[in-house]
Amino acid sequence: MSELSLENNSQSTTSSGNDFLDDDLSLNKMIDDNNQENEQQLNNNEDKEKNEGLEFQNFTPQLDLGQKTTEIEPQPLVEEKQDKSPNDYPVWSLNYYSQYFDIETRDVLLNILNSINPIKGIALEKIDFFGPFWIATTLIVLIGSLGNFTSYIKSLEKNKDNAGEPQFDFHKITYASSILYSYVFIYPIIFWVFRLKSFLAHTKVKQLICLFGYSLSWLLPLCLFLPFLTESGKWVSILTVSALTGFSLVRTILKQWKQAENENKTKLTLIISLIIFLIHCGLGIAIKIIFF
Amino acid sequence: MSIPEENKIDSQINDDFLESSLDEPISQTILRDVKMIGRKFKRVLIFRGDKNLLNNWDLWGPLIVCLTLSVILSSKAPDKQTQLIFAGVFVIIWFGAGVVTVNALLLGGKVSFFQSVCVLGYSLFPLVISAVFSIFFRHIIARTVFVLVGFVWSITASLGFVSPLIPKNKKTLALYPVFLFYFTISWLILVQ
């Protein structure tokens, strides 16, 4: 068995390491043969002892151990690094969470581009927490700054002679952060906790968090344009984008659900998709009302 | 409790600080630390000199930066929000630096946590300077220019430290939060 595993090792390493491994293979093979011979001898000895009826204390287990340790001693010269996977770390250490951040720039960008697709639903490349968290944070910064900018423009329009300094409202940032962070993190958790057992039974929390996070991503470019539109323009654009992303979100979740089986499909589908859609659009409308 | 001058060991002449630092007058100890902090600030402003200066991190610099910014920004705030802005700026700077560092760590970068927080804090110094300027020049365009210059300067200062430590395919992901952090603070300064 050990020979087989050594062969697998040699196949998986690069060619440059193969020379060493071949030597070691032969070395290990020699040692294995030796061990087998020794074990056979020991077994023969055991049999002899039993036959003779002598009651010597059986030291052979210790000797067996001794033989086995010599098997381990000659390490392969090209050692594959035994990296701990993130799951090996305890929950309170930082390294445990690096599994949620195992993502590259390309993946994040593709996730964002794919997050508005009302026909096929959101197709995420990879599940991660990086996207949702930083999209939410960027959105908070943008909404905070552009919201204040909008109120400055509004105050300019009202008192045209009063070219005063921008009245800065820091509360906008605090409200924005609580709304957005709860939408991205707390709402999916609540949603997941209260999911019906037959519906979305196989969805994991992190998928939901990722989904809801990325569904916000198209509000970002929208926010850049909002202060410069007229009132009706703002409403139209916010409603359009919210509807589109909400619809894609619903499509994605329904696709997940189709894999499960349920009898009262139609009614349940309607209710749950309506709830998701309404909450998503509600978020868009809330952003428009409170900040812009 | 001052240490009498006669008991000062002459090992000041040696480079052996460890043995003599217990016997030197406190002013000297404090001055040495202050000079160290000053040197780090200078290093952030002028990118010449010892590159590893920021490796022995300390959090005094970020604290000074944070307090200065909070005081400046909250003094210019509308009356009802003074406390909120002071607390807000404080939180944004410390938690922002912490979150950016944790993000870089989670993406697989090999930085030490406090060192990174230290660098991010020290690199805010150009923005502090532009904040001080914008107290005196209230014209909107001048302030925009100052803040923009400070923003670019701060980003250059911190990028030089952070970017070599991140794996290549995740560089943008790790650097974007830095950019966002300084953008937030620049905007807060601009709007005052």
Estimated helix fraction of chain B: 55-70%
- Succession of helices and strands of chain A: HHHHHHHHHH
3D shape of chain A: globular
Q: Point out poorly predicted stretches of chain A.
A: 1-18, 62-70
Structural class of chain B: mainly alpha
Low-pLDDT regions of chain B: none
Q: Beta-sheet strand percentage of chain B?
A: under 5%
Mean pLDDT of chain A: 69
Q: Radius of gyration of chain B, Cα only, in angstroms? A: 19 Å
If you had to describe this structure to a student in words, what would you say it looks like?
The complex is a heterodimer of chains A (292) and B (192). With 292 residues, chain A is mostly helical. Helix content of chain A is 66%, strand content 0%. Chain A starts with a helix and ends with a helix. In chain B, 68% of the residues lie in helices and 0% in strands. Chain B has 192 residues and is an all-alpha fold. Chain B has eight helices and no strands. Chains A and B meet through helix 4, helix 5 and helix 6 of A and helix 4 and helix 8 of B.
Task: Fill in the keyword field for this structure.
heterodimer; A: 292 residues; mainly alpha; 10 helices; globular; B: 192 residues; transmembrane helix (chain B); Yip1/4-like (chain B)
Task: Give a nutshell description of this structure.
The complex is a heterodimer of chains A (292) and B (192). Chain A is an all-alpha fold and 292 residues long.
Helices and strands in order, then pairings?
The complex is a heterodimer of chains A (292) and B (192).
Chain A: H1 2-12, H2 18-52, H3 60-72, H4 105-114, H5 130-158, H6 171-193, H7 205-215, H8 219-225, H9 231-258, H10 265-291
Helix pairs in contact in A: 1-2, 2-3, 5-6, 5-7, 5-8, 6-7, 6-10, 9-10
Chain B: H1 17-20, H2 26-45, H3 60-75, H4 82-106, H5 113-122, H6 125-136, H7 140-162, H8 171-191
Membrane topology (chain A): Multi-pass membrane protein
Organism (chain A): Anaeramoeba flamelloides
Biased composition (Polar residues) (chain A): 1-18
